[in-house]
Amino acid sequence: MAAKRKTVKLPCAPRSCALHARFSPDGGDAADALAFADFWLAAQGESQSRASRKQAGEQRAWDQKRAAWNKTRPIFVKVLRGQLSSEAAGRRLQKLLPNRELRRWVIERWRQPTQTTPEAPKESEQDLARRDAEMKVAERLLQALHRIHQG
Questions:
Q1: Using CA atoms, how far apart are residues 61 and 135, in angstroms rounded to an integer?
Q2: Cβ(91)–Cβ(51) below 8 Å
Q3: What is the value of pTM for the model shown?
Q4: Mean pLDDT by 10 residues, the chain (151 residues)
Q5: Nearest to 70 by CA among 114, 101, 112, 102
Q6: Residues with Cβ < 8 Å from 92, sequence gap 6 or more?
Q7: Which of 43, 102, 115, 142 has a CA 20 to 30 Å removed from the CA of 65?
Q8: Is 24 helix (H, G, I), strand (E, B) or coil?
Q9: What phi and psi values does residue 20 have, to the nearest 5 degrees?
Q10: Residue 68: how many other CB atoms lie within 10 Å
Q11: CA–CA separation, 18 and 91 (whole Å)
């Protein structure tokens, strides 16, 4: 009895049309050029239709997020003003947005500005100062390289 070979499935990326060929017509045969033009136009049309479908899907997702944001804004405003408890707000959110991922997205967007600490602006100022210093050094190096190449 032969030993069984263990097979391992590798994760594969989604396929896309990636043809690498060189077209070099002889110059006398117009049918080859016509066939290539047909193929090229079909490939371009497919590429554009895929991009269009992707963009339409992203637009639908964004429209859903915008609608959810507009629905839930009054609830969050009442919570921030202290007019509504967080438990009651949670129940209302679950009724308004049954989609869990959409609800998480809305909550995360409201959470970001409320979690700013007094140290955060100081840290960002320090980060900007550090980046500015790095940019000045890079500019000096670039100018020196430019001078070297000019002679």
A1: 38
A2: no
A3: 0.49
A4: 66 62 58 80 92 94 93 91 92 92 91 75 85 94 90 73
A5: 102
A6: 75
A7: 115
A8: coil
A9: -120, 90
A10: 19
A11: 50
HSE-up (13 A, CA, CB side) for residue 130: 6
Separation of alpha carbons 122 and 34, rounded Å? 64
Contact (Cβ atoms closer than 8 angstroms) between residue 76 and residue 89 = yes
- Give the whole-angstrom CA distance, residue 131 versus residue 124: 10
Q: How many CB atoms lie within 10 A of CB 97?
A: 20
Tokens matching residue 69 = 């944001």
Structure-block tokens of residue 84: 């509504």
CA distances in angstroms from 37 to 41, 46, 47, 80, listed in the order given: 6, 14, 15, 62
64 Cβ contact partners less than 8 Å away, ≥ 6 residues apart: 102
**Token pair 């043809």: residue:** 19
Q: Please say whether the beta carbons of 99 and 107 come within 8 A.
A: no
